[in-house]
Design goal:
single chain; 213 residues; alpha+beta; Aminopeptidase; 7-stranded mixed sheet; 7 strands; 32% strand; globular
Length: 213
């Protein structure tokens, strides 16, 4: 699974006029960290907290023309202004893509860029040969859930206590998150589990979530 070039990525999804995607460079790391801390104040704890540490980018994220790392972070810019970021992680053995963190500056929200970034993740996955893309959404506000559903993602369940959030100053709680997924491969590549291999509870839930299979 090879990451597409920035030219390929730019051709996949048209951002609103004046906005563009850019790949991360070393010079972008500190400004991006500062922006994420400003746009996403609760990022100090939990799974996304790695996005405010420079070492995460240096070790895990594609920088400049690197191709051997499993996480890509695409910047959204308007002129010289950094206004957003979307990131994905490839799981090459499973040929799967995980949509990690996406953030948009408050002044630039309302332009459907979150939906466009989700659609871009799907297109990147297909271009890389991924058969499946998934993500987790916060349950403290519906906007992320709505954006995923508008982009055609399917709610497949809830993760109880997967992540941690600071719910008030100095108080950290484990939180529920909604799990969303989208199949990218054609239907004929999917094998429906046999009823005999599922417990009654598993079969009932499977039939609710995937009634057409």
């Amino acid at each position: 699974m090879q990451w597409p070039t920035i030219n390929d990525i730019s051709a996949m999804t048209a951002l609103p006029e004046g906005y563009r995607f850019e790949k991360l460079t070393r010079a972008d790391i500190c400004p991006l960290i500062q922006a994420i801390e400003e746009w996403f104040p609760s990022v100090s704890v939990g799974a996304a907290s790695c996005y405010v540490t420079a070492q995460f980018y240096l070790e895990k994220v594609v920088i400049d023309d690197e191709t051997d790392k499993d996480v890509i972070a695409l910047l959204i810019k308007k002129g010289d202004e950094l206004v957003g970021m979307g990131s994905w992680e490839r799981e090459s053995a499973a040929m799967t893509l995980y949509a990690r963190l996406g953030v948009i500056a408050p002044a630039h929200r309302g332009l459907r860029m979150a939906v466009l970034a989700m659609e871009l993740g799907e297109k990147i996955g297909r271009a890389m040969g991924a058969g499946f893309i998934y993500t987790l959404a916060t349950m403290k506000m519906p906007q992320m859930q709505l954006a995923l559903e508008r982009a055609g993602y399917q709610l497949i369940g809830f993760m109880p206590g997967y992540d941690r959030e600071e719910v008030s100053p100095g108080v950290v709680k484990r939180v529920f998150e909604a799990a969303y997924a989208k199949r990218l491969a054609p239907d004929e590549e999917f094998l429906r589990p046999e009823d005999k291999n599922m417990t009654p509870n598993a079969r009932r839930l499977f039939d609710i979530i995937f009634p057409a299979m």
